[in-house]
Design brief:
The chain is α+β, with helices and mostly antiparallel strands and 243 residues long. It has one domain: Class II aldolase/adducin N-terminal domain (L-fuculose-1-phosphate Aldolase), CATH 3.40.225.10. Helices cover 43% and strands 14% of the residues. The two termini are 21 Å apart.
């Protein structure tokens, strides 16, 4: 496959990722963005152009190729204000291939309410439970991450974890692949929904016992990520919302 064809396919997939996140309620309006690593020092990132219509209506041409300093094939588009959120993760975490930044209301509300994202469920959602069991860190500043020093603070809070809640702001989710990062963001949102509903119902259940956690297998990226990605892209197509 030529680089032109690869970039065309990748732009379409990043656009689909934006539409999926919007359709599932993790972003609203024009807020939020997705980036995909291309080689060592370039990325495709969702930008805002002269005909901005919001993430639900992201088109492949809204996905621009830039370097880690934000320079590149912009053609009238503007990189996100929070580009450093993406580029610093990609600089410092070589295992990361994709960064998702979303504003899921349930995640923000749970954190502000003091409702921790805990491993309350089991086989209901294994990947979400495994994320919670490993710890979901919080960056405790509600700032726009528009500078490298602020992104470095977020990374320090995030540590080696694949996701991080941004207090009063949203969520950063990463993955080796686009599919993995998007599905991780969706799983954190689902976990927040469950934890909030349990708290609102007056419940305070114990975390899943260690022996039950040990019985929850990692079913692999095909089952956890690829198949769910295919499901969400099929829903886009079914609703006439594919790119």
């Amino acid at each position: 496959m030529s680089e032109f064809d690869f970039l065309a396919d990748a732009r379409a997939d990043v656009a689909r990722a934006c539409r999926i996140l919007a359709r599932q309620g993790l972003v609203d309006g024009i807020l939020g963005h997705v980036s995909l690593r291309v080689g060592r020092d370039r990325l495709l990132v969702r930008c805002r152009g002269p005909h901005e219509r919001g993430l639900l209506f992201t088109r492949p041409e809204d996905i621009r190729l830039v370097d880690l300093d934000g320079h590149g094939d912009l053609d009238g588009y503007a990189v996100p204000n929070e580009l450093p959120l993406h580029t610093e993760v990609l600089r410092e975490r070589p295992e990361v291939g994709c960064v998702v930044h979303a504003h899921p209301p349930k995640v923000v509300a749970a954190d502000l309410a003091g409702v921790a994202l805990r491993p309350l469920v089991g086989a209901f959602n294994i990947p979400a439970t495994r994320l919670a069991a490993g710890g979901i860190p919080v960056y405790a500043r509600g700032v726009l991450i528009r500078r490298r020093d602020l992104a470095a603070e977020m990374l320090a809070a995030m540590g080696d974890r694949p996701v991080c809640v941004l207090r009063g702001h949203g969520l950063t989710a990463t993955g080796a692949t686009l599919e993995q990062a998007v599905i991780r963001a969706l799983n954190v949102d689902e976990l927040a929904r469950i934890c909030l509903e349990v708290a609102q119902a007056g419940g305070d259940p114990a975390d899943l016992p260690a022996e039950d956690l040990a019985e929850l297998p990692d079913l692999g990226s095909t089952f956890n990520d690829t198949l769910l990605w295919q499901y969400h892209t099929a829903r886009l197509a079914h609703d006439g919302m594919d790119v």
